[in-house]
Amino acid sequence: MQIVVLAKVVPDYEVPSADFELVGNRAHPRYTRMIGLYDENAVELGVQLKEKLGADLTVVSYGRNDDVQFLRKALAMGADKVVLVEGDSDDPYVIAANLKDAIDRQGTVDLILAGRQSSDMDRGVVPGVLAGMLDLPFVPQACSVESVDGGWKISQITETGKRLLKLSGKGVLSITSVPENVPRIPAVKAIFAAKKKPVEKLPEIGTGKMAVSELSVSIPKVESNCELIPAEDMDDAVRVLLRRLKEERYL
């Protein structure tokens, strides 16, 4: 059995959005780079499946040559190999086509996991496009996966709760964050061992772009408003607070 996890190296997602600086509609190059937040959730889930099923776990990425140093974290977490397609396109269709080419080269792949969205552009487009290219079903917002009867039992997070799905055969899942897939912190021994694990680099293939053009990118300005609620009568204060929260659609 082989499981593939898609991982993208992105600018530091812990930088507050109000402090984020854009250059040419993208993050300033001065920011530290790292594997995307949700991609690490997918890697963690992949490692858990590997440990339960004895599967091979391959991390496939599209990006810059120097992304390898950051992708080694996935190897330290437990992945067996990294495959990096070297390219600098930001077009979802181009990225998906190159990821498909890299996955096709890995032989039989039983399951493909990806973060639900990248931590830089937050588009969440590539996993679905890739599933279409591979002619596989796509399940978004998955949080846990079990192997059952030649397929997969999947828990999917919805706006109102969780539902269970059965996937017969192969598929592409985008993984969201839950406490059960919080990325593990690699031990020092695993970090050193990761330096000896294989990294395969592939050239970018040429392909057309998605028929959607990006016109602009902006960071929303954060505004805070303070409203004081009289607290002489606590029962009345609670009623006012609940009413105001409902009016602002927080409840």
UniProtKB/TrEMBL annotation:
Domain annotation Electron transfer flavoprotein alpha/beta-subunit N-terminal: ranges: 23-211
InterPro entries: ETF_a/b_N, ETF_b, ETF_beta_N, Rossmann-like_a/b/a_fold
SMART domains documented for this protein: ETF
Entry keyword annotation includes Transport: yes
Family annotation (Pfam families): ETF (PF01012)
An annotated Gene Ontology molecular function: nucleotide binding
Residues that bind AMP: L6, D39, Y62, G115, S118, R123, G124, V125, V126
Domain of life: Bacteria
Keywords: Electron transport, Nucleotide-binding, Transport
Family: Belongs to the ETF beta-subunit/FixA family.
Name of the protein: Electron transfer flavoprotein subunit beta
Gene name per UniProt: etfB-5
